Amino acid sequence: MAVMSPDAVPLLVLLLFLSLFGTSQSCLQDPASAFRFTGAVCRLTHPAAAVLNEKTTKVIEAAFQHARYPSMKGEKILLFIGKVTYGLDNLEIHNLSIGRSEFELRPGEGIAMEISNVSAVFRGTLHYGYDSWLVDVAHSIDFEIDSQIDLGINPKLYCGKGKVAADTSDCYLNFHKLRLLLQGDREPNWLKKLFTDFITLTVKLVIRGQICNEINKVANILADFIQDTAEQFLTDGDISVNIGVTAPPVITANYVESYHKALTIYKNVTAVISDSVFHPSQLAEHRMLYFWISDQLLRPMVIAAHHDGRFQLSISRAELIELFQTNLTNAMPDFISQCLFESGSPELRVWSSSVPHLNTSTLGTSVRAQVSGQLHCGPPHTLTLFFQMEVTVVVTASYADKKLFLQGNTSEVSILQAELPSDNNQQLDEAQLEFIREAVERIGVPKVLSVLEPELTRLLDNQGVNLFDIFNPEVLPQDGFVVVQMDFGFPHHLLVEFLRKTLE
Question: What is the pTM assigned to this prediction?
Answer without folding.
Answer: 0.82
